[in-house]
Give the backbone structure.
Amino acid sequence: MRIAIDEAVADVPDAHRWLDRIIEKVEDEWHLWEVTGFEKYGDSSWVRDQGRRGQHVIELFRAAVTRSAYPSVHERLIRVTLHPARNTELEPKPAAYLAEEPMTILVENRDSDGTFLRRVIREVAPSELSALFSRPGKPIRFDSCGGGGQMPEEIQRRCQDAAVRPRLVAIADSDRVAPGLSANAQARRLENVCSQYGVPCWILAKRENENYLTYSLLAARPDSGQDHHRRLECWERLSDDRKDFYDMKRGFRGRQSAAAQGLFDGLSSADVAELRDGFGDGVGQCWDVLWSTRIKNELLERGGEDLQRGCVLIQREV
């Protein structure tokens, strides 16, 4: 976050310990101290008391001035004040608690979805956002609550009694089976609850996160045999729309809706047979290969504006 501290707060001794806790997280590079001129703090008791952290505050202030001269991914602004009047303002104690709270990315499955998001952020987002994942104390964390169906209740539980909106983003599959269709009812409900509480929510434009996988990642799947590579060649011949909504895990198994059937009308019988069983439940492990290779251009070709939109939504809470 970007944290601004009113000068009046810096002159209240009872607030000092909370301000100290806030700037500890600034020092850990979780947040950006939004500063202007030092005259705001120079005569405050927070700085004048050289026996505690006064000199350290001065040093951090100077570092914050330098850091604020460069572009930053931190977008959410909180002002620390004695008399909060807006939902972006907090007294020192709750402000310290919010500053110490890791940002949570709520997903359906913290393992598979977490790997997808780490890869996307590493490749597509500004490097400063990616670097937050390795900061001391883990300022960004993934969490899940037993599946997408429970996510709206989890958002509500975290937000409804909170004095200020928690540092929270929700991300879910759309489960759309063809272009032009709405996301499924579960995803729409999540989006509505997030809108109610002002929580950034990214419903994937494609069917699932596996639909953003690129050819090079799929080709590098560990322990894959000839069947996988034959299927991959058939997948590569699909149009973009078909790649976007093909069930990567289960293929054409199970009952298919009319929209899904219509999308694949005209596909050769040989390709239908090859793609029928999909790539299996473990295809998401392909997000975890080729880490030494940058695949930004490939990812943007597959995911384009939607991946960039997701990164922007995450930045809203950083």
Remarks:
- The longest strand covers residues 168-172.
